[in-house]
């Protein structure tokens, strides 16, 4: 058992010698990471706010378009009813004149 542990230690010791660089992060890079995380969070919030504004704008445009279509439809219906009313008035006038002729 003792030899196996020593061999493992020697093996890991050899691996460390071949490794270059420090695996720990320095305080400077940690602060930089914090700043970058903060910037990402800010940009994400900004993007979400922009998406909400765009959605609101699109909704308003849809409502405007629908109101315009409704307004045009009401005008058409109004015009049709006016024409129908005129035709009915002419028909009533003809009926009255025909009744007078018969008497």
From TrEMBL:
Its main location: nucleus. It is found in: Nucleus, Nucleolus. Residues 16-47 are annotated as: Disordered. Involved in nucleolar processing of pre-18S ribosomal RNA. Has a role in the nuclear export of 40S pre-ribosomal subunit to the cytoplasm. Keywords: Nucleus, Ribosome biogenesis, rRNA processing. Pfam families: Nop14. Residues 16-27 have a biased composition (Basic and acidic residues). This is Uncharacterized protein. InterPro entries: Nop14 (IPR007276). It comes from the Eukaryota. GO terms for biological process: maturation of SSU-rRNA. Belongs to the NOP14 family. PANTHER family: NOP14, NUCLEOLAR PROTEIN 14. One of its GO terms (cellular component) is small-subunit processome. It comes from Lutzomyia longipalpis.
